[in-house]
Write a structure and sequence with these properties.
mainly alpha, two-stranded antiparallel sheet, binds iron/sulfur cluster, 2 domains, transmembrane helix, 63% helix, 4Fe-4S binding protein, membrane, single chain
C-alpha cells in the first residue's frame, strides 16, 4: 500500500475516500483492465472468422452484429458521455489500449520521448485521418476495417509504449486519435483531481518526503489546473495532502483555465474536426447534396466518354467493397465521399472561425488568445454533436433488431437545445472576461450567434429534414 499523505487531513469526505480507494486498489483496477483487454480482443477478432451477418441477423443471434452494437452503439457513446461526466476515467481505469501501452512501456526499452512525438497536433491529425479512413472503409458496418483501425491503433500504442517512456502512457499523452477529443470533453466534467498549490507549499514547508507518484500520462501534478490530461487513475490521490478528488462547476475549466494557454490544435479539433468533419461523417450517407453531386459528376463523365471511374473499385482496405452485400463504393463514390468530408471540415471550420474572429474583434483588438478561448466555449456543442451522431447509430441498430426507443426525437431536440444553451452561457461568461463595455459584450455575443446556429442547423437537417 502506498500512502502519500504525510499528515492525513482530519476528515476525508466520500469523494476523497473514493479517490484514495483508487490509489490503494491498483491490483483490482489492473484486473479490471485485463478483463476489458480480453473482451476487446474477443469483440475485435471473433467476427473476422465468421461469415458476414445475413439480412435477418440480430445482435442477440449473431456475434458480429453483437460486436458492432457493442463497439459503436454502446461503447463509444457511453465513453463520450462518461468523459463529460467524470473526466477521463475510461482512459485511466478501463481503456484496453492504455493498459496495454503502459504494460509494454514497463517491459520496453524505455527510450526518451522524441520531439516529433510531442508535436501537439498529433491528436487532431490522427482523429481526422482515422475518421476519414473509417468512412472510406465503412468501419461501423464491417469487422475487417474495425479490426484494422482499432487493432492497428492498439498495435501502434503497444509499439510506442515499448519504445518510449518507463512505464508511462506516451501513446495516450501525445498520440491517441481520440485523446484530443477526450481531453476536450473532460474539461466539462464536474469531477476532477484537484491540486491545491497552498497545501502543496505547506507540505513542502513541513518537510514532508512523500514517495514519487507514478502518473502514467505524465501530468505535472503540482501545476495541474485542468482535467484534460488527467486519466483519473487516482494514483496521486492524497499526495502531499494537496491532491483530492473534488467537485467543481462544469463551467470552471472552460471559463477560468482554458484561456490561459492557447492551444491552436484544440481549436482546429473543435471547429473543423468535431463540428465539421465528424458531422460530415454522420451526414454523408443521408445527404441529398452528395446524391446531387454524384449525379452531376456521373453526367459529366458520361459526356466526356470516361465512364470507367463509375465502375472501378478498390480493395476493401481502401474503399468499401462488399459485392456480396451489394455495398460497393466506386472511385467516383470514394472521391465524392472524401470531398464531402473535407468540404464539411473546411466549410464549417472556416465559418465558425470567422464568427469567433468577429466576436474577438468586437471585444477590442484581435488577440489570438481570446480567439482560442472563445473556441473552447463551443466544446459542449461539439461534444453533444458527437454523442448525437453516435447514439443515432445505436438507435438505428436497435431499430433494425426490432427494438424501438420511445421519444427519441424529443430527447434529441432537448439534448441539442441544452448543448446550444450551455455553449451560449459559456460564450456569455468568457466574453464577460474581456469586454470593456456592455455594448462590446453584446456585439461579441451577436457575432457568436452563427457559431451556435450553424452546427445546430446541421443536426436539424440530419435528424428532421433529410
Ligand atoms: S494526475 Fe496522473 S496520477 Fe493523478 S489521477 Fe490524474 S492521471 Fe492519475
Amino acid at each position: 500500500m502506498n500512502v502519500h499523505r504525510a499528515i492525513a487531513p482530519p476528515k476525508a469526505g466520500p469523494l476523497q475516500r473514493a479517490g484514495d480507494w483508487l490509489m490503494r486498489h491498483r491490483t483490482t483496477i489492473q484486473a479490471m483492465q485485463w478483463t476489458v483487454v480480453g473482451v476487446y480482443a474477443l469483440l475485435l477478432a471473433v467476427p473476422l472468422f465468421l461469415p458476414l451477418p445475413g439480412r435477418t441477423a440480430t445482435f442477440w443471434n449473431d456475434f458480429t452484429r453483437f460486436a458492432q452494437l457493442a463497439f459503436w452503439g454502446v461503447w463509444w457513446p457511453f465513453v463520450i458521455l462518461a468523459t463529460a461526466l467524470v473526466g477521463r476515467a475510461w482512459c485511466g481505469l478501463f481503456c484496453p489500449e492504455g493498459a496495454l501501452s503502459e504494460f509494454a512501456s514497463r517491459h520496453g526499452r524505455g527510450g526518451a520521448i522524441p520531439r516529433w512525438v510531442q508535436w501537439p497536433g498529433w491528436p487532431t491529425a490522427a482523429f481526422a485521418l482515422t475518421t476519414l479512413y473509417g468512412q472510406m472503409t465503412s468501419v461501423y458496418q464491417y469487422p475487417k476495417p474495425a479490426a484494422l483501425i482499432l487493432g492497428g491503433s492498439t498495435a501502434a500504442a503497444v509499439a510506442v509504449g515499448y519504445a518510449y517512456g518507463r512505464g508511462k502512457r506516451v501513446w495516450c499523452r501525445y498520440l491517441c486519435p481520440v485523446g484530443g477529443v477526450f481531453a476536450l470533453l473532460a474539461k466539462l466534467a464536474p469531477l476532477h483531481f484537484r491540486s491545491d498549490p497552498f497545501l502543496w507549499k505547506l507540505s513542502q514547508e513541513r518537510g514532508d518526503k512523500p514517495g514519487p507518484v507514478d502518473c502514467a500520462p505524465l501530468v505535472p501534478l503540482r501545476t495541474m489546473r485542468g482535467a484534460g490530461d488527467c486519466h483519473m487513475c487516482g494514483r496521486c490521490s492524497g499526495f502531499r495532502g494537496a491532491i483530492t478528488l473534488s467537485w467543481r462547476s462544469p463551467n470552471h475549466e472552460i471559463v477560468h483555465v482554458a484561456g490561459a494557454t492557447p492551444k491552436p490544435a484544440e481549436t482546429v479539433l473543435i471547429l473543423a474536426g468535431l463540428m465539421g468533419l465528424a458531422m460530415g461523417a454522420f451526414h454523408w450517407s443521408a445527404s441529398p447534396w452528395l446524391v446531387a453531386a454524384k449525379q452531376a459528376v456521373a453526367t459529366w463523365l458520361v459526356d466526356l466518354g470516361a465512364t470507367w471511374p463509375l465502375t472501378a473499385t478498390l480493395p476493401w482496405w481502401l474503399l468499401t467493397n462488399y459485392p456480396e452485400r451489394n455495398d460497393v463504393l466506386t472511385l467516383v463514390d470514394g472521391a465524392l465521399l472524401v470531398g464531402y468530408l473535407v468540404a464539411a471540415a473546411l466549410g464549417m471550420g472556416l465559418a465558425l472561425a470567422a464568427a469567433l474572429a468577429l466576436s474577438v474583434r468586437a471585444l477590442g483588438r484581435f488577440e489570438a488568445r481570446r480567439f482560442h478561448h472563445l473556441a473552447q466555449t463551443l466544446v459542449p456543442l461539439a461534444g453533444a454533436g458527437l454523442y448525437l451522431g453516435l447514439s443515432a447509430m445505436t438507435v438505428t441498430q436497435l431499430r433494425a433488431d426490432g427494438i424501438l426507443i420511445p421519444h427519441v426525437s424529443a430527447a434529441r431536440a432537448l439534448f441539442l437545445g441544452l448543448a446550444v444553451a450551455w455553449s451560449a452561457w459559456l460564450g456569455w461568461r468568457v466574453t464577460g472576461l474581456y469586454a470593456g463595455t456592455r455594448t462590446a459584450r453584446a456585439a461579441a455575443i451577436a457575432c457568436l450567434l452563427p457559431a451556435w446556429a450553424l452546427p445546430a442547423a446541421g443536426w436539424v437537417l440530419f435528424f428532421w429534414v433529410w
